Amino acid sequence: xxxxxxxxxxxxxxxxxxxxxxxxxxxxxxxxxxxxxxxxxxxxxxxxxxxxxxxxxxxxxxxxxxxxxxxxxxxxxxxxxxxxxxxxxxxxxxxxxxxxxxxxxxxxxxxxxxxxxxxxxxxxxxxxxxxxxxxxxxxxxxxxxxxxxxxxxxxxxxxxxxxxxxxxxxxxxxxxxxxxxxxxxxxxxxxxxxxxxxxxxxxxxxxxxxxxxxxxxxxxxxxxxxxxxxxxxxxxxxxxxxxxxxxxxxx
Length: 251
Fold this sequence. Notes:
Layout: H1 2-5, H2 14-17, H3 20-36, H4 41-56, H5 61-85, E1 90-96, E2 99-104, H6 105-131, H7 134-143, H8 148-177, H9 184-215, H10 232-250
Antiparallel strand pairs: 1-2
Helix pairs in contact: 3-6, 3-10, 4-6, 5-6, 7-8, 8-9
């Protein structure tokens, strides 16, 4: 569990010291701008700035690559689908087993625009996630009047997901030591056993955790962090940033 919960970012970095509520509101404003933007320059500019800030926080490049691998795959698939199945202006064509595929210029441009929005939006979320502890993000969401049920479920899932992962690692290592993954058929059987054990452990843990929390006075209201008053300098800087990025988007 310590591998996932250790502090990955530099807590002394200026971005890390900003109030989570200010970061979250600014990120949401920029996210709306990125999603609604019809060009390429603004989403790519946001992605470039966010990636630079992530690197300045001390986030390893390997971690960034893993975090962006899935969004990049989705962006690539959108680009391919738009290239071959949308648009009217032919760019190139080729035959595959008697089936002709035609790439379209306007489809390619539309796919690039959508891909840029995906990368820009994910970069914003990654920056907020890397620079802010998860509990503080949840507290900021609670302050923004996000339904308390969603916040509580997210906190419980975040806390006990790592316990479930530890159980999975213990069972998986035991299976490997007993040659449980030698061969395709035996590996599939071992994986099925692992999945079944995890389901049973999750059910047992949920019952024991519920009983323990009720005995300690849990009434469905999860206490959140107490927020400090807003700092006028942070609010002013965030407002200038949002207004400046909005001006760049319009230009």
